[in-house]
């Protein structure tokens, strides 16, 4: 059992400088942590982008309809 612990510690390093990975002995490096952080950020942005697409389309469509009606109304009012 002690041999396994020593092998583990030889492969890993203290992680007190890491922000997200465990602070104790870990196999996670600063570079690996940064890559995981960037990938998580991209995944989150894509999820928000995909889930809000329908709402954005609805908003743009209704905005165009409203804008068209407002322009027609202003044209009528200004030419009375």
Number of strands: 2
Number of helices: 2
Most strands sheet: 2 strands, antiparallel
Our estimate of the beta-strand percent is 5-15%
**SSE string, helix = H, strand = E?**
HEEH
Multimeric state: single chain
Low-pLDDT residue spans: none
Shape: rod-shaped
Number of domains: 1
Structural class: mainly alpha
GO cellular component, one term: cell surface
InterPro entries: Glypican (IPR001863)
Protein name: Glypican-6 Secreted glypican-6
Pfam families: Glypican
Can you describe this structure?
By secondary structure, the chain is mainly alpha-helical. It has one domain (12-28, 35-79). Helix content is 74%, strand content 5%. It has a two-stranded antiparallel sheet. It is rod-shaped and about 95 Å long.
In short:
By secondary structure, this protein is mostly helical. It is 74% helix and 5% strand. It contains two helices and two strands; from the N terminus they run αββα.
